[in-house]
Amino acid sequence: MEWYLPMIWAAVIGTAVSFYVILDGFDLGIGILFPFARDERERDQMMATVKPFWDGNETWLVLGGGGLFVAFPQAYAVIMPALYLPVIVMLLGLIFRGVAFEFRSVSDSQKRWSFAFTAGSIVAAFSQGVILGGLIQGIPVANGAFAGGSFDWATPFSALCGLSLVAGYGLLGATWLMMKAEGPVGQRGRTQAKALLLAVLVCMGIVSLWTPLMSERIYARWFSLPNFYYLWPVPVVTGVVALLLWRWIEKGREILPFVSSIVLFFLGYLGLVISNFPYLVPPSLTVWDTAAVPASQIFMLIGTLVMLPIILGYTVMIYWLFRGKVKEGESYH
Amino acid sequence: MDMDPVLLARLQFAFTIIFHIIFPSFTIGLSAYIATLGAMWLRTGTERYHLLMRFWTKIFAVSFAMGVVSGIVLSYQFGTNWSRFSVVVGNVIGPLIGYEVLTAFFLEATFLGIMLFGFNRVPPWLYVLSSAVVAVGTAISAFWILSANSWMQTPAGHEVRNGIAYPVDWFAVVFNPSFPYRFAHMLNAAYLTTGFVVLAVGARYLLAGIHAEQGRTMVRMAIGLMAVLAPLQLLIGDQHGLNTLEHQPIKVAAMEGHWDGSKPGDFYIFAWPDEKAETNRFGIAIPRGSSLILTHKIDGLFPGLTSVPPQDRPPVVPVFFAFRIMIGIGFFMIAAALYGAFLWWRGTLVETRWYLWIMSHCWWIGFVAVIAGWVVTETGRQPWVAYGILRTADATSPVPAATIAGTLALFVVTYGIIFSMGIYYINRLINRGPEGSAISDDGGGMANTPLGAARAAAREAISKP
Predict the structure, then answer these.
(1) pLDDT tens digits, A263-281
(2) Would you say residue A326 lies in a domain?
(3) Domain extent listing, chain B
(4) Fewest CB within 10 A of the end CB: N or C in chain B?
């Protein structure tokens, strides 16, 4: 039990984080694409495509962070102080873009809150990438506590991860608009999606080359035998999905570009998991080192197994209730 | 410059949590009020209730957004600023917060989508039901977070090995000794807080002679609720105090400014507690008042502050004064609610302008009482963060003072902007009034499903008086 409980929890948190990245990814993407809209009317329409969902989407972030606290308190207690500044800056970004959803529709100056929405979205996305990069490049630990400085995370690598995530969320947002918005907004999504896909692929390529060069452990994970025989399909499948995505964008398909963008995200995520498993705090603490006691993990797991299907159920319900495209000039004020 | 990282971390947490608690105190009650209005609209078909429901839902949306974003910050601060706390009590506290996310946050966030934007998409019953689900969600959320906080005050159902707390009995952890009292006290406080806001808005309309019909409804509903809840709060508070005396006697000693436990306690209406001299200065007291309240005997004894060494005492001044602010407002609320009920019974409620004038300026008193109450209980727990298990000074993260100071400044600026804009927008929505908001709704609402238009027409037909 002490072996597999942390594994189950790692899977639960992994799922929560990937749900967060996909779901909040596309609505942060809307914020990232906001400056490219022609006027506030178009921005109304863009915002209307995500307004009923954003709060639920962001809750996955609380589940990810809260889940880490519950199931791996030791990892939580190392990661948060180590990535203190990017975490706080991300939260501040999320504050501005979160209130912008409501403030923008009651304010006289829509422009001001459109700016806050964009700035908050970009800052939050970039910070999340920096957090990811800071984690991958490794956190110094001594006696079970963080033993580094306040700016250890600030490296070219983490900055690249930040840019990757901004581009990636932008791609999710653009393909979401292709699916959910009528008129010029949806059409502009196509052009934007192509540019952003190229940017994402370049970023993914650099990160994929950089991580094995940065860490011998990750190099050995991918390129030692027999691992390589099992793992080579991951980059190949990623390439095929990227190619399909490009073609579907060109053809102006509505749903497939969004779906394949999600798949692309999952593949990138899978690559990171392969590189770092079983470390929760690379390069020293594993999922087993940092796990809460079984009594806590079991108590929480029971609730999770009961509640997660219900949560997924009403999440599907709300996406279904608000199905269909948002017309030009439509908004919720 | 030498700054104390523990003090800074405490300031940052105090600032972010005080800011946060303002919004739940309001939205817990407001969602219940909105659901009540919805139920009355469905039952009676009266348009007035529908208008009021839509009106308060707009205000709810703005406040809830601020509550959500400031709440997410807190869930990360346990790690960023209090990582030792996370390690020492994470096994016990963690799941309580986890359950809050699973049983409440998703529920609120998702059904909020229907409550705010589903008006033209779903049948009226589902629309009203969604607001009820949000109201229940906020109460469930309060359940878990107050359970976690109460465990920090009165830990139970655990054992400590090598300085780390491990759960033994989950039922005892969740329903720890102070939890039922704190939960009842806070939930009631949230309803009272909202009641005074609704009363103030209604009074404002009546005084200005606008939206008179809705104003009357608001004033009456609020007074009806508060005439019951305000006196009830006194009873709950008294029981909560007795429970605190049993489990955290030194906190009660600080609340009462009671230094010497070998003598009966006086109730100080005003005093300046002098922590160095271990006595109260400039005191105006009801002799033996505290003994009477706490032991129900005129010469009953209860522990004084000097029964523990100074390093085990909480800061007395903030606890002492915050307690007086809280109960002062509490008694004012009882008087206001009962007098309002009396005026209503006499049939002169709507014409008694001086009463309405005072009430229209009292929208903030519930918030101040809630914050003061939390200052009492949180400051009174010091020097412990988890009572008897972990001292606050030992709970922090290995983060330098300058980093904490910098982010504290960022929080102050950000929250300053958000808060002032939020208040400004809410005030504007109130000025626009219930009718104004419903008209702008019908212009901007979405009806892009064929059914949506039909439903809107049907609703129109139903809601005609």
Answers:
(1) 999 999 998 888 888 888 8
(2) no
(3) 1-176+400-465, 230-393
(4) N
